[in-house]
Amino acid sequence: MTDFTNIKGVLFDLNGIITDSWRYHSQSWRQIAEEIGVQWNQDLEEAIKGRDRIDSLNEILRVGGLVGKYSDQQKEALADKKNAIYQQMLEIMNPDDILPGIRDFLAELRLNHYQMIIASASANAPKEIHKLELEDYFPLIVNLADIKHNKPAPDVYLKAAEMLHLNVDQCIGIDDGIVGVESINAANVVSIGVGDPEVLTMADINFEPTKELTLANIRQSWPK
Ligand code: BG6
Ligand code: MG
């Protein structure tokens, strides 16, 4: 594994790391799932965390035994409906919604000349960064149109490293979802999983709450 001293860039997932918009995604998917008769539970929630829009819907249909029941057009309509509910929830998003410790961590990274970029699976990422007033830290956001496969494929984290003009062994990726950490690992980037260590067992480094994200903690937890 690369040495901590080689690290020059930090690749950030958005939902669940910078802000808790994951709970809005989860609430709006739950609404759709229950509307089509799929029971919501913790396992389904973990399985779709960080997956892109259509993959999330496909997983909900799979768990509900509804594969093949909806045409592509009907699926698109369900995904659009979920996005409309989600965007409605986003209206009230503001800088107070930045998760604990993140603002200090971003300031610390900047002070120490690390580069930063958003590597989110969400097409709503630019809107959220705007609402959180974090454009100054994140002028760079991976454009989903520039990647072929979303998380858990490595594309979004590979693209993020490329946009920073860094090699993958000069980057750390931070994500709260199983598919997100898998995506970081597949890109051969050192992964930090934020959340339950029993869920994010595949992460190289784990922190439970976002406020543990500091350079000192990362350096200390660096795998030997
Ligand atoms: C991820 C969320 O960040 O973005 C997922 O964790 C979501 O729940 C995915 O499905 C895609 O988001 P959007 O905003 O493009 O539907
Ligand atoms: Mg996330």
Task: Quickly list its features.
binds magnesium ion; about 220 residues; 5 strands; about 40% helix; five-stranded parallel beta sheet; binds 6-O-phosphono-beta-D-glucopyranose
The biggest beta sheet reads: 5 strands, parallel
H/E series: EHHHHHEHHEHEEH
- The count of strands amounts to 5
Biggest sheet strand order reads 2-1-3-4-5
Low-confidence stretches: none
Q: What Rg, in angstroms, do the CA atoms define?
A: 17 Å
Mean pLDDT, to the nearest integer, reads: 96
Strand content: 5-15%
Distance between the ends: 8 Å
Written description of the protein model:
The chain is α/β, with parallel strands linked by helices and 224 residues long. The protein has 9 helices and 5 strands, in the order βαααααβααβαββα. Helix 1 (22-35) packs across helix 4 (72-90). The chain has a 5-stranded parallel beta sheet with strand order 2-1-3-4-5, with helices on both faces. Strand 3 (171-175), helix 8 and strand 4 form a beta-alpha-beta unit. The chain has helices spanning 22-35, 42-48, 53-63, 72-90, 102-111, 125-131, 155-163, 178-186, 215-221; strands at 9-12, 115-118, 171-175, 190-194, 205-207. It is globular. Magnesium ion is lined by residues 13, 15-17, 22, 50, 175-177, 180. 6-O-phosphono-beta-D-glucopyranose binds next to helix 1 and helix 3.
List the helices and strands and how they pair.
Layout: E1 9-12, H1 22-35, H2 42-48, H3 53-63, H4 72-90, H5 102-111, E2 115-118, H6 125-131, H7 155-163, E3 171-175, H8 178-186, E4 190-194, E5 205-207, H9 215-221
Parallel strand pairs: 1-2, 1-3, 3-4, 4-5
Helix pairs in contact: 1-4
The protein binds 6-O-phosphono-beta-D-glucopyranose (BG6) and magnesium ion (MG).
6-O-phosphono-beta-D-glucopyranose binds at residues 14-15, 22, 25, 49-53, 56, 83, 120-124, 177.
